[in-house]
Write a structure and sequence with these properties.
heterodimer; A: mainly alpha; 2 domains; two-stranded antiparallel ribbon; 14 helices; 4 strands; 3% strand; globular; disordered N terminus; B: alpha+beta; Beta-Lactamase; 9 helices; 11 strands
Chain lengths: 346, 345
């Protein structure tokens, strides 16, 4: 019996280690941050303080909406857990969403269905187990499905309140009981909650790749596999840490990250026209800035603003065919201005 | 000539032992081969049924069998790109009986068996079990189980294809310590296999103690040969005669135990010799327990004749008797193992 218990503990420990390696959040820093907000707003209630804490962590909803969600889910939290644990899982979801977006951009899938299954396994299955640990066992699957949409796809969630949302979607997800026991149907709940988001992201990226290929067959040259991606990870990380830590972005770091983004695409000694890369550059800048900033910024409006700024520049360079190095030098101040403009808007 | 760089078969055995299968045939095969391929599931699943039936209190599951593939220099007919072969099995105790999801993968890469196994066990298999409940609730009497299972197998095949070729990762459990409870020596000369098991003496209390941690000495003794033969058969059916398998790892588990079989081989003058260890994870209380790398090194030293067999076996576990072997070549010898080594008294 002891052996069995040891074995069980060991398996849980290994799973915990793996989960931490993948989706760790800095709880000490978050608690410090929460305590700071708590001290600043002593007159507010606990739910309002947690809402302020979540806004500070860029979860991407209006304060009223966050308060409403917290109030709804507070009774669904296990007795030995508190609302702050729920807030931590919301922040963890934000982190997973960030990693997932990076992953789907790089991975090649044959079709959206393969992407859905693979991504659910890699990113959401362990998280589901973790999330359910803070929730009461008889929570309905529809409520968990709603949480997935709120946590991972806030831009698409119905703007009505949570109870109206649940009433509207009650036939979508079933909670099945057999002999008084709830049957595990977590995979279907995750699929229901996240398939449309993964499918949309897959289709957007796929359409973009097709567009780039068909628009600029000559620019891609023979060794095309090297050239198709701008890597905006550093810009994204810089903005993200700015949002979390509220520290001023150091100019040199910003310039370095923009250089990295541009040099990941442009090659010294190869010549490009502006039209060869403008679609890809606009998309990549929009994605890395929007992933870095709070989710209050809609992709489309941000994309239009960036495209319009680049269009102004395009008029001046329309006929030019420049070497990769020259493009890096020319584009650096333009991209820097775009990034700073959005950062200033926070 | 068409090249075949992926062999993939996924089959599901439901609670009432009906087997549903899905294969990837990227090469046109003869009618007879296709007919035989459809019989593969039962051959592969055989030991699984046996393992779970063997110890009714503690149901055993064969998680995966990993094998490398070597070129058969005499029979090269075409460029063969397949270099590893995996058999993966997920067993889930559903409401009214055991269900198995079994998969074989012949691939051109050294695969990550744990990642593939987890996808099968935690996602594909669970999706079949959970989907069954959902579909019954949604469609009621109109629910078509066959169509549903084949749809799910299609999903599984796509997910496995997507995963094939992923780099192998180092998992925390690989640093775990194991203790050896037996060694199997196998020698193949011109297709004839000679196989012997070395383990504790029958009167050694360790034999009885460790019998609780493995399905049985009998099953452990037959598994390497059994699955190697199945892989050879499968490769033949897919018309891959220029390669042959070498079992590297077999992993079995039950709800409270785990067994690892680890094998190393050497081919010299057309004689293939292999040594495999039956290992069980231990806690720090067991003195003769080591990490996997220790055992691999010891097996290589015996194969390369840099160390004496008997001495090395004693170094691995001083209680294993390296002088008395248990032959596994005939029914009579196997019965002997069952009667004397698997005896619980």
């Amino acid at each position: 019996m002891q052996e069995l218990r040891d074995k069980g503990i060991e398996v849980n420990l290994l799973e915990e280690i793996r989960f931490k390696q993948l989706f760790e959040i800095d709880k000490d820093r978050l608690i410090w941050n929460y305590q700071r907000i708590n001290r600043m707003f002593k007159n507010l209630g606990s739910i309002e303080i947690i809402a302020k804490f979540l806004i500070n962590q860029s979860v991407g909803f209006s304060p009223e909406r966050i308060i409403e969600i917290l109030k709804y889910f507070e009774p669904k939290i296990k007795e030995d857990k508190i609302l702050l644990d729920f807030a931590f899982e919301w922040i963890r979801a934000n982190r997973i969403r960030f990693d997932y977006k990076k992953f789907i951009r790089l991975e090649v899938y044959e079709d959206p269905n393969s992407a859905i299954d693979d991504i659910i396994f890699l990113f959401f299955l362990d998280y589901d187990r973790h999330l359910r640990e803070i929730l009461i066992p008889d929570i309905s699957e529809l409520e968990i499905c709603a949480l997935y949409e709120i946590f991972f796809n806030p831009n698409e969630v119905d703007s009505s309140n949570i109870e109206i949302y649940l009433a509207k979607n009650q036939l979508r997800v079933h909670t099945i009981f057999k002999g008084g026991e709830k049957i595990d149907t977590c995979i279907f709940t995750i699929r229901e909650g996240l398939s449309s988001m993964i499918k949309k992201d897959y289709n957007d990226l796929h359409a973009l790749k097709v567009k780039i290929k068909s628009k600029s067959p000559n620019s891609v040259k023979e060794n095309s596999t090297l050239l198709l991606e701008f890597d905006g990870t550093m810009v994204e990380r810089l903005i993200k840490s700015y949002c979390f830590n509220e520290q001023k972005i150091i100019e040199r770091e910003l310039e370095n990250s923009i250089s990295r983004l541009l040099s990941s695409y442009f090659r010294f000694g190869q010549f490009y026209k502006f039209e060869d890369f403008k679609v890809e550059l606009t998309h990549n800048l929009t994605t890395c800035i929007s992933s870095g900033l709070t989710a209050n910024h809609r992709y489309n409006s941000m994309h239009n603003l960036i495209a319009s700024r680049l269009r102004n520049y395009e008029k001046a360079v329309e006929q030019q065919k420049l070497d990769g190095l020259a493009w890096i030098k020319d584009l650096k101040p333009i991209v820097k201005e775009i990034v700073l403009k959005f950062v200033d808007m926070i | 000539m068409e090249s075949l760089d992926l062999l993939l078969g996924l089959f599901f055995s439901s609670e009432d032992n009906i087997v549903y299968e899905k294969f990837i045939l990227s090469k046109k095969l003869s009618e007879e081969n296709i007919k035989q391929i459809n019989k593969l599931p039962m051959r592969f699943l055989g030991p699984l049924f046996m393992a779970s039936a063997y110890d009714t209190e503690n149901k055993w599951n064969i998680n995966f069998i990993e094998s490398t593939l070597s070129s058969n220099q005499e029979e090269i007919t075409e460029g063969s790109f397949i270099q590893s072969f995996l058999c993966l099995n997920s067993s889930v105790d559903a409401e009214s009986g055991m269900t198995y999801l079994f998969c074989f993968i012949g691939s051109q890469y050294t695969e990550d068996p744990k990642l593939l196994y987890e996808k099968m066990n935690k996602y594909i298999h669970q999706s079949i079990i959970q989907g069954n409940y959902i579909a019954q609730k949604t469609y009621g009497v109109e629910f078509n189980y066959n169509q549903f299972v084949y749809g799910e197998l299609g999903r599984g095949v796509n997910l496995i294809k997507q995963t094939v070729g992923s780099p192998r990762r180092l998992y925390p459990e690989e640093k775990r310590k194991y203790c050896s409870v037996g060694l199997i020596k196998r020698k193949r000369i011109e297709g004839i296999v000679e196989s012997n098991l070395y383990t504790f003496d029958t009167d050694d209390p360790l034999r009885k103690k460790y019998l609780k941690s493995i399905p049985s000495y009998y099953l452990m003794a037959i598994l390497p040969n059994y699955f190697e033969t199945r892989i050879v058969e499968t490769l033949k059916l897919f018309e891959k005669t220029d390669i042959f398998p070498n079992i590297r790892t077999i992993k079995l588990s039950s709800s409270n135990s785990e067994v690892l079989y680890l094998e190393e081989f050497l081919i010299e003058n057309q004689i293939r010799t292999s040594y495999g260890l039956i290992l069980i994870p231990t806690n720090n209380e067991v003195s003769e327990s080591y990490e996997i790398s220790f055992y691999k090194k010891k097996l290589r030293l015996i194969l390369d004749k840099k160390k004496n067999f008997e001495e090395t076996v004693i170094e691995i576990n001083s209680r294993i008797n390296p002088f008395d072997k248990w032959s596994t070549d005939s029914e009579e010898n196997l019965r002997n193992i069952r009667d004397l080594l698997d005896c619980k008294n």
